[in-house]
Task: inverse folding
């Protein structure tokens, strides 16, 4: 039985939550392997809307075990608020398992995230301000606090003291902010221990055993390919590996156990925060896409930047992730356009690029080369098979599929679980 990876192909918010939820009923484990509560996944089930940040979207599928794996950074306050919110709505969260090796986000890293962004001014990244970057930096600097550290107060105190020694100086001398006291940080973290302890496990071992027993494991990525710290539009990225490789390091499942890599891709493109975006529309077309697609961040409420589908990016996602299947989302949002442009290549200083340019400078200067497709006006939100779609919508899908380098297995025509056309079985 397989391990499947599901990741975003663009700059996030492709509809990964809905896609995971769709598979949730058919898999035994859904594993979040990277990121933290910078993610925002909206899942609509029978008219009920759920917004998830830290919990894997599989939590909404009864029978499925949700896992927060070692690659995730956890804000414990957010974890329990989210659990309580779901429980209050009748969702059973008792199966949740949390890795002993996952890092926690101490409050000082949230402060640092925010003051650093302010300090950067025009060079800011536009982060979600959740302390994600500083916490991954601590992990790499080997001064992070892990879930298991909370089980030994002496060790926890030593780690917090160690981390704060330098940070307190930076906060005070660079940002004119008083750092929180070691005691206060330790106390806050310890206040979660009793609730956390029963959820904590060696998730790498748990998942290896599950695969040996023939269970199906879905590894759900937060963020997306172009926000990946290695393969994205650095420095305008998040601080984790959101590509399929990150699924292995972030969960302890080795590459040779992965059977499928599913990439979720929107029928157009959006981006939140700063950084280059070749097909961005700064005119009323962009405003129309934002309004029709409801393109406002699930996490921060920020308006998302909008633009046309970029096939160069989709091909890049196929290459970097080893995509075996694409899930195309939000096709319904494109209803009503006379013509739909699709970026098939870039032009940089008069030179055509069919692949992502090697340098960030070139990508910043890339202008899209568009091909134009005829639109459709019929409402497609009730379509349930490919044949239900207007001819031009079918042609648009097939054209994107050909340009993007892997088969399109499903198409979304609305936010609800039911509003999906399955072109080939994903599982
Ligand atoms: P994620 O971060 O990748 O999980 O995506 P988000 O949840 O942040 O953003 C995707 C938004 O699009 C959510 O509000 C979804 O409910 C919605 N959505 C997902 N698929 C479709 C679709 O096919 N059509 C429409 N209209 N909305 C969709
Ligand atoms: P989901 O999982 C869209 C963006 C932020 C910012 C950059 C770095 O819902 O697709 P961070 O707080 O991670 O240090 O911010 O990454 N970003 C996202 N954009 N969707 C997300 O998650 C994002 N998570 C982070 O806007 O530009
Ligand atoms: Mg999102």
Result:
């Amino acid at each position: 039985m397989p391990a499947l990876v599901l990741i975003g192909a663009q700059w996030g918010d492709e509809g990964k939550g809905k896609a995971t939820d769709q598979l949730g009923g058919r898999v035994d484990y859904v594993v979040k392997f990277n990121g933290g509560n910078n993610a925002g996944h909206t899942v609509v089930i029978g008219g009920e809307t759920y917004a998830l940040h830290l919990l894997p979207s599989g939590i909404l599928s009864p029978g499925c075990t949700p896992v927060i794996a070692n690659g995730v950074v956890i804000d414990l306050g957010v974890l329990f608020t989210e659990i309580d919110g779901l429980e209050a709505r009748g969702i059973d969260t008792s199966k949740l398992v949390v890795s002993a090796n996952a890092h926690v986000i101490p409050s000082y890293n949230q402060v640092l995230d925010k003051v650093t962004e302010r300090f950067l001014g025009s060079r800011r990244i536009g982060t979600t301000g959740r302390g994600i970057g500083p916490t991954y930096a601590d992990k790499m600097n080997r001064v992070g606090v892990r879930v298991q550290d909370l089980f030994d107060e002496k060790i926890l105190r030593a780690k917090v003291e160690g981390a704060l020694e330098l940070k307190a100086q930076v906060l005070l001398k660079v940002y004119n902010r008083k750092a929180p006291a070691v005691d206060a940080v330790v106390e806050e973290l310890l206040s979660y221990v009793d609730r956390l302890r029963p959820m904590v496990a060696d998730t790498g071992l748990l998942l290896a055993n599950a695969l040996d027993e023939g269970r199906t494991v879905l590894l759900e990525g937060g963020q997306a390919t172009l926000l990946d710290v290695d393969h994205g539009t650095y420095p305008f990225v998040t601080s984790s590996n959101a590509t399929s490789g990150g699924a292995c390091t972030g969960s302890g499942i080795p590459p040779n156990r992965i059977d499928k890599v599913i990439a979720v891709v929107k029928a157009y493109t959006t981006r939140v925060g700063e950084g280059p975006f070749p097909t961005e529309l700064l005119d009323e077309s962009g405003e129309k896409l934002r309004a029709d697609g409801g393109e406002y961040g699930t996490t921060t409420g920020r308006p998302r930047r909008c633009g046309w589908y970029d096939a160069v990016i989709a091909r890049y996602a196929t290459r970097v992730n080893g995509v075996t299947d694409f899930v195309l989302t939000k096709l319904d949002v494109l209803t009503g356009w006379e013509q739909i442009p699709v970026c098939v290549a870039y032009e940089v200083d008069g030179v055509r690029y069919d692949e992502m340019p090697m340098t960030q400078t070139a990508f910043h200067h890339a202008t899209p080369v568009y091909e134009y497709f005829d639109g459709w006006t019929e409402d497609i939100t009730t379509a349930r098979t490919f044949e239900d779609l207007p001819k031009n919508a079918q042609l648009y899908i097939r054209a994107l599929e050909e340009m993007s380098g892997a088969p399109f297995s499903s198409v979304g025509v609305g936010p609800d679980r039911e509003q999906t056309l399955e072109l080939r079985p994903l599982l």
